[in-house]
Each structure stands twice: as structure tokens, then as C-alpha cells.
Specification:
The complex is a heterodimer.
Chain A lengths: L8 H30 L17 H9 L2 H32 L5 H13 L6 H11 L5 H9 L2 H12 L3 H9 L4 H12 L1 H17 L2 H6 L8 H10 L6 H21 L1 H13 L1
Helix pairs in contact in A: 1-13, 2-13, 3-6, 3-7, 3-10, 3-12, 4-7, 8-9, 10-14, 12-13
Chain B lengths: L6 H7 L11 H35 L17 H7 L2 H33 L5 H13 L2 H12 L5 H8 L14 H27 L2 H10 L3 H12 L1 H17 L2 H6 L11 H10 L4 H26 L7
Helix pairs in contact in B: 2-14, 4-8, 4-11, 5-8, 8-11, 11-14, 13-14
The chains are: A mainly alpha, B mainly alpha.
Chain lengths: 275, 315
């Protein structure tokens, strides 16, 4: 339908075959991890149709490491970051979109700087700051550098700017103050953008690894990614089946959410990128 | 329209207006509101982005404090040491090779995938799913899976190769193949992510363009080269910037798979910073290395504004 000329049948077949080959290669690592995780370890590299199924690998992984605690830590971390981001970015975006104040343009450029110079590369200095604040090995230390997100501010500012001024004026005439206008007019209209941003933020921080690895050093604070790495590189012996099970376990919530809400996920990433 | 009037004039003409406030206040209020709203985000940004960026530079001019001896000003000595450090040059070279491979490969694949799943194809839902899934998985998790793919002897790659009677090298243990293995992982992880943006852009292209081209009898390749690709330029720029940043920012797979080895063959710049800063605890030298990384990122930002903005074909 999209091609300018109806393609010849053979080349269309070739294209479809190519697409499938590429897709199979792309899904292979995940498919393999799934195979290894649900079969006994002697089958981990031995692919026969009658290999017996087992949940033993998941049980072993769960018992070998405090994954329950890691799950809780990641959950706390991700929700803390998301809530802080939503509040901070909403306020800042509202300021940039609807108030003309001294130094606004300079401030906006300084905010956008973070799109390039992300906290991910400022690990040495941020670790020093966390030490000075006495926050090393706490969950807030993992989250703090990410809470004021330039990406979120930019995204919401664009959205707020597209809200018709008349709605704003109408609410003000009715006596609403700036914060009430924000909550009653702007926030409800930006709901799809909030969802998009939320999904992107959750998947980013669920998966984040290097900074949490640096700034945590105990079971009580480590997120799943760091816990998984410690588990996989410890002296468990290289049992790929158990490592695969642990790998799937840590990615499962995100993966299941993705499979259930595939359309929203994809559209969220699209929306986040377009603006 | 009312809101076109000067706030001051409105206040003078209608002093009773409850919206505009009293006297000089309307002039000042937007400034106060603006800064108050911005303040919480500004404080955090200043503390964890601007301050560390500046203090990185300052720290690079001092020595690393050791024990009771504090940091001493040593001018450009750290930079001199860096220029004499073969591992720094190795990491820089690795990072250049890594970026030069990952960026074009992942973008080209992303565009191909987007075009493949933009059409009505058998199993389109499955195709999209498998292309996009790597994006939602943690890099740390998939790196563990890939580690097994590459493991010598019983790894999947070696098993497949042995079917064809090919003797496989020790993929991650060999300095010639290790970086390539990591490049493959990065391309695999990023291509599906970038595909999404191309897909979104493709869906916004007017179908009339394709119809017009069909009437003219243009071939698909010609249509892609002369119409689709130029119109996708803004998306390509966006994806390109992201790809460049990712190639300097993401080193999770290196921590899991090679630890920079063998013999620094897979040490990227940020990995070397991590190693120097948190394994050797030479923070001043790590700051010096970070200055290089920040300069590279700043150059990318500058290039984006100066070079690309005028060349893009905006719709």
C-alpha cells in the first residue's frame, strides 16, 4: 500500500522472508534465555524437543540471592524518581511555558544542557557530592541526580505551550490562582504525555545500572540490576540455566507490562521522541 | 481581545480587577511565580549537573588527595599524564571504533526495520514485537544472555559454527574479536529503539507522495532516496544525536561481559573513567578523563546546532 509501485511478487516474498529472518535473529537471545530457564541445566545448550520442563532454576535463583529485597528496592527507587520527576518537571515546564520572568531563556538553555551532559557521565563528582551529603548507599542517592529531568521539562513545556490561552484565561477569570490553573487546566490536558513520559522513565530507571552500582554497597539499597550482576558474577558456579532464570525474573515485570500494553509503550516512546 | 492590553493599563483603567492585582504587583508577580515554580528543579539541576560539570574541570587541575595530604594545585600535570597514558589513547580509539560502527549500523537497521513493519506484512505484530523487545530489557540482563552466546566451547555461537565445521575463536577473550562482540550487542539493543522514531515519522508522511510517485513510475529505491529519506532527515538527526550520546554513555555490557579486557581491548572512555575513579580511586585523574568526555559531548551539541540545523529538510 505504501510503496509507489505495486511490488513484484517475488521481491515482496523476499522482503517478507528477510523481515522474518531479522526478527528471528532479534528475538533469539530472549528465546534462548527462556529455553535455558525452563529446562534442567544439562539441556541449557542441548536443544531437543523432549527436554523436561522445570521451575527449579527460578527457585534456585530466588533462594540464592535476596531478590525479594532487590525487587522492593527497585520498586521504591523507580516510584520515588517518577513522583519527583512528575512534580518538578510539571512546575518547571509551567514556568517556562506560561510565565515571562527575568533570565527565562538563559535558564532554559541551562536546563537543556542536561540533555547532553547526563548524570550518567558525571559519576565521579556526583559520588563526591553524595559522600559530602552522607547519602552514599541510600536509595535517594541513586535517584537524586535524575529527579530534575531536562527531557521531562522540555516535553511538558512543549505540551503546555500548545494549550489554548483562552482556557487559561477563563480559569483565571473564575478566580483560580496559578497553581489551580496548572492543576485544573494544564495537567489534565497533558495526560497522554504524562503516560508517555512515565513509561519511558520507568523503563529507564528499572534498567539503570552503572550509577546504582557505584553508589550502593549493601543488600538494603541495591536495585535489581546491581543485584543481578552480583549474583551472576559471584561464585555460584557458571550455571547458565539459573542465571537465565534470574535474568528473566528481573526483566519480567517490565517485559510483561510491555507485552500487555504494547501499543501504549510503543506510542509513548514515539510521542516522547517526536516533540 | 482583553488579554492583548498592557497589564499596567488595565490596572489603571480598572483598579477593581481581581485578576490583575494592585499597583506595581502585576509587574513583579510573573517573575516571582516563574522563579518559584522553577526553583526546585533548578536546585537539583545545579547540584547534580552544573556543579559537577564545573567541579570536574577544577578537580582536573589538582592532585588526588591521599590520606592526610590534601589536593594540591598541579596545573596541567594531569593532562600531561593523560597524554602519556597509553590506556587513555586505547580507550579513546576503542570508543571511536565502537561509535563509528554502532551508530551507522543501528540507524541503518532501524530504518530498514521501520520500513519493513510499516507495510502490511504477514506477522507484522510479531515483527514489531521482536524488534522492539530488546529496548525494554535491562542491558545488564541481556548482556548476561549474550555472554553465554559467546562463551567458548559450549556457547550458542560456537555450537552453530561447529555444525559447519568452523573452529571458533574465544570471542570475548581475543583482543581482535571482543570489541566487535560488544558492538553487536549494542546494535541489537538500540536498533529497535530507533525504529520506533522512524516508524512514527513514516506514519506521518502523506500517502499522496507515494501515489504521485507511482503515477510518475518511480522505482521504490528512487522514491526512498529522493523522497522518503530526505523527509525523514529531522528524525535521522534526532536518532543520530541519541546514538552518539549512547555510544559514550552506556557501558553496562562492558562491565558484565569483558571488564574492559582482554588487555584493554574493550575499554571505552566511560569505562576507563569508572575504573580509574572507583577501582584505582584516582579521582583527580578520573576528573581529567571526564573533562575529555564532556568536551566530546559538548562538541556533539555544538555540531548539532551549527552544522545540522541548516541542512535539514523540515516539512
Amino acid at each position: 500500500m505504501n510503496g509507489p509501485r505495486p511490488t513484484a511478487p517475488t521481491s515482496a516474498v523476499l522482503e517478507t522472508a528477510g523481515a522474518w529472518l531479522l526478527a528471528l535473529i532479534w528475538i533469539l537471545p530472549l528465546a534462548y534465555a527462556l529455553w535455558a530457564a525452563v529446562h534442567p541445566s544439562q539441556y541449557s545448550a542441548h536443544f531437543v524437543a523432549n527436554a523436561p520442563l522445570t521451575v527449579e532454576n527460578f527457585v534456585k535463583a530466588w533462594n540464592a540471592s535476596p531478590f525479594g529485597r532487590y525487587f522492593l528496592n527497585t520498586f521504591l527507587l523507580v516510584s520515588m524518581i517518577l513522583i519527583a520527576q512528575l512534580v518538578l518537571c510539571t512546575l518547571a515546564a509551567y514556568a517556562f511555558a506560561r510565565f515571562s520572568f527575568v533570565g527565562r531563556d538563559t535558564a532554559f538553555v541551562l536546563v537543556l544542557l542536561q540533555l547532553m551532559i547526563m548524570p550518567d557521565v558525571l559519576i565521579v563528582e556526583n559520588y563526591r557530592t553524595m559522600t559530602a551529603l552522607g547519602l552514599v548507599d541510600t536509595i535517594p542517592a541513586i535517584g537524586l541526580p535524575y529527579m530534575a529531568s531536562a527531557f521531562g521539562i522540555f516535553l511538558l513545556r512543549q505540551t503546555f505551550k500548545s494549550v489554548p490561552r483562552e482556557l487559561d484565561e477563563a480559569a483565571r477569570v473564575e478566580g483560580a490562582g496559578p497553581l489551580q490553573v496548572l492543576l485544573k487546566v494544564y495537567v489534565p490536558l497533558a495526560k497522554p504525555v504524562y503516560i508517555a513520559y512515565g513509561l519511558v522513565s520507568i523503563s529507564y530507571h528499572w534498567n539503570n545500572f552503572l550509577w546504582p552500582l557505584i553508589v550502593t554497597n549493601s543488600v538494603g539499597t541495591r536495585p535489581l540490576t546491581v543485584g543481578l550482576q552480583i549474583f551472576a558474577s559471584s561464585d555460584q558456579g557458571i550455571d547458565w540455566s539459573v542465571i537465565s532464570a534470574a535474568t528473566l525474573m528481573t526483566s519480567a515485570p517490565l517485559l510483561i507490562a510491555f507485552l500487555l500494553f504494547q501499543r501504549q509503550f510503543v506510542q509513548s516512546f514515539m510521542r516522547a521522541g517526536i516533540r | 481581545m482583553m488579554h492583548g492590553a498592557e497589564p499596567g493599563a488595565v490596572a489603571a483603567a480598572a483598579p477593581a480587577s481581581p485578576v490583575r492585582g494592585r499597583g506595581a504587583a502585576p509587574q513583579l508577580l510573573p517573575h516571582i511565580y516563574g522563579w518559584l515554580l522553577l526553583l526546585p528543579a533548578a536546585v537539583l539541576l545545579a547540584a547534580f549537573t552544573h556543579y559537577p560539570a564545573v567541579s570536574t574541570f577544577i578537580d582536573s587541575l589538582f592532585s588526588t588527595p591521599k590520606g592526610r595530604r590534601g589536593a594540591a594545585f598541579i596545573g596541567l600535570d594531569n593532562y600531561q599524564a593523560m597524554l602519556d597514558d597509553p590506556v587513555f589513547w586505547r580507550a579513546l580509539e576503542n570508543n571511536a571504533i565502537y561509535a563509528a560502527c554502532v551508530i551507522p549500523l543501528s540507524i541503518a537497521l532501524a530504518l530498514t526495520m521501520a520500513i519493513l513493519v510499516d507495510r502490511e506484512t504477514a506477522g507484522r505484530a510479531f515483527l514489531r514485537l521482536s524488534f522492539f523487545t530488546p529496548t525494554v530489557l535491562p542491558m545488564i540482563a541481556v548482556a548476561n544472555i549474550w555472554l553465554f552466546f559467546y562463551s567458548p566451547g559450549y556457547g550458542l555461537l560456537d555450537q552453530v559454527l561447529s555444525l559447519f565445521g568452523v573452529a571458533a575463536p574465544n570471542w570475548l577473550g581475543n583482543g581482535h574479536t571482543a570489541l566487535g562482540c560488544l558492538i553487536a550487542v549494542a546494535v541489537w539493543k538500540d536498533a529497535g529503539f530507533f525504529m520506533i522514531f522512524y516508524l512514527a515519522a513514516l506514519q506521518q508522511l502523506s500517502p499522496q507522495l507515494a501515489e504521485a510517485a507511482a503515477i510518475e513510475g518511480a522505482s521504490r529505491w528512487y522514491f526512498f532516496r529522493r523522497v522518503t529519506f530526505p523527509l525523514l532527515m529531522p528524525t535521522t538527526l534526532f536518532v543520530l544525536i541519541n546514538a552518539v550520546i549512547n555510544s559514550f554513555r552506556l557501558i553496562d555490557h562492558i562491565v558484565v561481559m569483558t571488564q574492559g579486557g582482554p588487555d584493554n581491548a574493550t575499554a571505552l572512555l566511560l569505562f576507563y573513567i569508572y575504573e580509574v575513579g572507583f577501582k584505582f580511586w584516582d579521582t583527580a585523574y578520573a576528573a581529567t578523563l571526564t573533562v575529555v568526555l564532556l568536551s566530546l559531548l559538548a562538541a556533539v551539541a555544538l555540531g548539532q546546532f551549527v552544522f545540522f540545523d541548516r541542512r535539514i529538510h523540515y516539512q
